[in-house]
Amino acid sequence: MEDEKFGETFKFIRKSRGLSQDYVARNIVSRTSISKIENGKQTPSISKAYSLIKNLGLEADEFLYIQNNYKRDLKSSILHQFMNLSETTQAESISHVVNECKKYLSNYFDVQISHIFIVLQSLKSYENGEEFSKIEERLKPVWEDLSKLDTWLTIDLFIINNILYFFPINTSYNMTKQSLKTIENKYPYLLRLKNAFNLNISYLLMRENLFEQATKFLSESMELSKIIKRYDLLLIAKIRLSIINNNFEQIQKYYNLLVEIGAEELAFGVKKEVKQAFNMTII
Fold it and tell me: Which has the higher per-residue pLDDT, 277 or 249?
């Protein structure tokens, strides 16, 4: 955070919320220190800065958003958009984020943005029919970088979720198990991402005829889908279980429900998935 800008933003938020300097300083610094911080004459440590922001009644992300004139900076915008791409396959959305990555990387070196750029370019190549083996080679350095890390951040988990499809099943399975363990131990609130991992690995296991393992992940996905109220994803899990059980009547029923609730994009993906991987045709 820029020292002067931090003080200006802090003062703006404090006054706009009608808070006194004594109130925001409580248990952290003196009232005199608050005055100096707001006038750019004193810089709080990182830990104190975060504590002071909390005393304003908001989180650091929102403080930075306000500091940047109520806009996300380019990197934050890319990360936000990428993490929201996990539930969509829209080529237009992917292309937009790719262009944002290019713009950012033309001015800065950044490993996270470089990884996202490679991942999204690979997804575009896959949609255009490029061979799996070539895409895997392109993504190997990304996975090698991530696998060396002692701890995965949220963005790392989203990147891993997007590259599962392009690796051998043993690698993808281990990626998933490690990611789910990280979510459970460190990011238990990432239920949507947890569900995405369960759905994605279930599909990959089904392609390898590992139906017993796939069923376990699908059962978990159905419970998670109910918790997060994603009934479209609940239907996807039910369709896959019906494929495992060779129940075409149920497949057709759940597919029709997807269409009826307006999840046309997911329905199209299911139709394509069922035909390509399992040689079944949904009407």
Answer: 249
Distance, in Å, from the CA atom of 112 to the CA atom of 66, rounded to the nearest integer, reads 24
Q: Report the top-level CATH class of 3-67.
A: mainly alpha
- For tokens 């999204």, name the residue: 120
pLDDT over threshold 60, residue 232: yes
Domain 168-283 has CATH 1.25.40: yes
Angstrom CA distances, 49 to 20, 55, 70, 108, 280, stand at: 17, 10, 19, 26, 58
Angle between helices 46-56 and 3-16 (to 10 degrees): 20
> pLDDT (tens digit, 9 = 90+) per residue, 166-189?
999 999 999 999 999 999 999 999
The residue whose two tokens read 């279930």 is: 202
**Residue 266: what pLDDT?**
85
Amino acid, single-letter form, for residue 140:
K
Q: What is the pLDDT of residue 88?
A: 47
Q: What H or E segment, with its residue span, contains residue 166?
A: none
Expressed in angstroms, the distance from the first to the final Cα of the chain is: 56
Decide: 61 and 75 in contact? Cβ < 8 Å: no
- HSE value, Cβ hemisphere, 13 Å, CA-based, for 240: 33
In the numeric block, which tokens belong to residue 215?
A: 């069923």
What token pair was written down for 119?
């991942």
